[in-house]
Amino acid sequence: MSQMSxxxxxERTIGQDVYDVEGQKVGTAANLxxxxxxxxxxxxxxxxxxxxxxxxxxxxxxxxxxxxxLHVGQRKDLIKDAPRIDDQGHLSEAEASELYRHYSMQAGxxxxxxxxxxxxxxxxxxxxxxxxxxxxxxxxxxLRAGTETVETGKVRLHKRVVTEExxxxxxxxxxxxxxxxxxxxxxxxxxxxxxxxxxVTLHEERPVVAKETVAVERVGxxxxxxxxxQQVSEKVRKEQVEVVDDADPKHRKR
Length: 254
Description:
The chain has helices spanning 7-11, 76-80, 93-102; strands at residues 17-19, 25-35, 41-48, 54-59, 64-66, 69-71, 111-113, 118-119, 124-125, 243-244, 252-253. The protein is mostly beta strands. It has a domain at 7-118: Photosynthetic Reaction Center, subunit H, domain 2 (Photosynthetic Reaction Center, Chain H, domain 2), CATH 3.90.50. The radius of gyration is 47 Å and the shape is rod-shaped. The two termini are 43 Å apart. The model is unreliable at 115-131 (pLDDT under 50).
């Protein structure tokens, strides 16, 4: 549906989901505000935020009702940043002008909230009461549950140095002196008798230890989301209507 819906179709969206021009869910439709002059619906208040804690005014220009709720012609971020105006049943000219500036729209007429039974096509109130009929509105509280993400703790990695002893077996060698005797053939002359020293240099291997730092493992932290269900309970109140017969106080009807 591309054109704006009728007043009756818009009224049926109260309490249903509201979607922005890109199809993103914004919140829940709360109240319709009509023009004081024409009686046509001009604004809708949308409850946004956790548990519908904030109520924003959204223009109905270009809005249309569908099976899944009300689709408006503004973006979600623009709606949530709209000026905060108390829902007192009527918009003043100053409040309406502020809203028009926010949505970059041409200023129109101020509006009042549509009351149950009001004919939004004419701005007049239908006679919803029969002859001799009196009525009252019965209300009750209902739970609306949601979720929020909170920080529960921090986990960090810490690296510390631990000293330990390692033993390594290394093969080494060294030189030793052995006396080697060889006989001289008979008949050779030229030998001398006297003192003489011969020096021999000995060598040996000794172990040499060096240390080097090498990377052996990569350690990291990974998080995963675990889904679970929790039950939330809270006491709610509701109103009950009963008929009290003044002639017979014991006679009550609900």
